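Bug report

Summary: structure tokens for 18S rRNA (Guanine(1575)-N(7))-methyltransferase differ between web form and batch submission.
Environment: batch mode, default settings.
Steps: 1) Submit the sequence below via batch. 2) Compare with the web form result.

Sequence submitted:
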Amino acid sequence: MSRPEHQAPPEIYYGDTEARKYTAKKPALILDIGCGSGLSGEILTEEGYEWVGFDISPSMLSVGLERDVEGDMMLADAGHGCMFRPGSFDGAISISVLQWLCNADTSYNAPGSRLSVFFTTLYASLTRGARCVFQFYPENDDQVQFIMQQATKAGFGGGLVVDYPNSVKAKKIYLVLWVGGEMMVGPNGEGQGVKQQLPQALEHEEANVARHEQRRVRDDCHERNKKKKKGETVKQYILRKKELDRARGKTNVPRDSKYTGKKRRRK
């Protein structure tokens, strides 16, 4: 990441967005592994987190770019590792990725090697005390044990959480991992005296409440997006998003011109 003084003059760099950062609690930076089109990233944004995601599918990422999600997304294969600086992220999430790393679709894609590289590099890219939550669809119990063994070898602690274990449709399996010792760690590396433990699994009587909460979050995101664009012309919307990207220090923002927001004629 480039230095602030290389991005813009101080009176521009320290605009409204940066000024608020100095008076607000620093949000955690989350890694979304297999971010797809950014659906889970939208929930992270809604909850006040900053996030970076990667996915192996160019088509999924293209949809995310079209939807103009707030996080940064990149094309990458989890089986090749998480190539980020050590201690870059405060946590990680993943939906429906782990079982794909167990799929030997080519002669050189050995599941053991891919999982080992993935968990080892992920462990290094997380801060001490960070947590990861993987929701996945294992083929059988042996595959679950195989994945957990690779995670343990990389240094992770944690275990399995199964929501609605007696339901065929609602059953969800999560691998919950943490980095470092058994104690939670504060933002400055200080121990908080709270022991790391697995979250309580949801039971059947909580299923309706959980579904209602998920629906509420989706509806809130939809309403927020509608309000964001209400009364705005296409050109105003594009200019506003460009200005936001410039304030964030992005260097590949297209220049404004008289053609901004205008439909192009097909040749």
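Above is the batch result. After comparison, the two runs are identical; trailing whitespace caused the diff. The first helix runs from residue 10 to 13. The first strand starts at residue 29 and ends at 33.
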